[in-house]
Amino acid sequence: MAKILVIEDEAAIRRVLVKILSEENEAYSVDEAEDGLSGIEKIKNDDFDLILCDIKMPKMDGVEVLEAVKKIKPEIPIVMISGHGDLDTAVNTMRLGAFDYISKPPDLNRLLNTVRNALDRKELVVENKILKKKVSKKYEMIGESEAISQIKEIIDKVAPTDARVLITGPNGTGKELVAHWLHEKSERAKGSLIEVNCAAIPSELIESELFGHVKGAFTSANKDRAGKFEAANGGTIFLDEIGDMSLSAQAKVLRALQESRVQRVGSDKDIKVDVRVIAATNKNLKKEIEEGNFREDLYHRLAVILIKVPALNERRDDIPLLVDHFSEKIANEQGTTKKTFSDKAIKLLQEYDWTGNIRELRNVIERLIILGGNEVSEQDVKLFASK
């Protein structure tokens, strides 16, 4: 049932609006408030799907109500009710985030169409939020250990900024999950997160991959092509395994960070980009700097915020949670019933030396689910999780 709040200080108009909406659709539950202050109290204490709000009211006018609602419950659509002399103000409220406005006395068809459209928009916003939560769950960070809790705290503080982040840690620890969380919790979440695995791209192609190229720049360049930095414009670029990037590509990345501009290979034309850079590596970059393999100036540009992701052996307390998470995820993927693990099986898994970290644990859990009993036992772990 859609819950609608009518905020209107003129009792006669308020009664008309409540009567029209209540009689129009049995699925509408209509509440009322006689001024802005009481309306705000109701909004704080209840969940409404739509608000109809007069502009000129004592104590707190409609513009103030609109601004307050956008701070406390920004997802609720607000339709402003305007008198003849309020039309300019009504138009201005649209710029402040109002869904629409209707004039007094309200035209029945216009009122009902506006209400239906606003409720449809609210439903779409809710669906999008649910979808985003599902997407976010794919990159959920599982764990309650002190190390993981600290990483989550840092992400919450850093994500809303545009600060560059360097994520370090061994292979298989989940550095890409940190990058996804940083992006999804940022102001750039509506933009793209473009991932580049620097170790997987040949050194002679990395510059073209990152910055694009123009036709004829090299033998196989048959047409102009945009690079990853351009694709990430307005969003985030994640440079995974940046320690494997060539020195010439590092120089161009440094320029892109300093000037927010890139040049396609074979071109001298600057292209302005607005990109947040997150990088990750499993290498000791300070050692790479000493050996001449990594630029020190680039390191300092990237490492504004450092996040170290611990090896699984450093967070064994999280293994029961990870086992449960992977068991459910694998069961969903395979369309089977989720298996449980005995306490002794879990304890044995916590004692193993996980050189392959989270990635290795997931593979072992999948193997145990396929080959083990209905409840995975200590014996199953000894048989099928051999190191």
Automatic annotation (TrEMBL):
Record organism: Algibacter luteus
Superkingdom, taxonomy of origin: Bacteria
Chain ranges of the Response regulatory domain: 3-119
Gene Ontology annotations of biological process type: phosphorelay signal transduction system; regulation of DNA-templated transcription
UniProt keyword terms in alphabetical order: ATP-binding, DNA-binding, Nucleotide-binding, Phosphoprotein, Transcription, Transcription regulation, Two-component regulatory system
Transcription in keyword set: yes
Residues with the 4-aspartylphosphate modification: 54
A single MF term (Gene Ontology): DNA binding
Protein name: DNA-binding transcriptional response regulator, NtrC family, contains REC, AAA-type ATPase, and a Fis-type DNA-binding domains
Domain Sigma-54 factor interaction: 141-370
Listed SMART domains: AAA (SM00382), REC (SM00448)
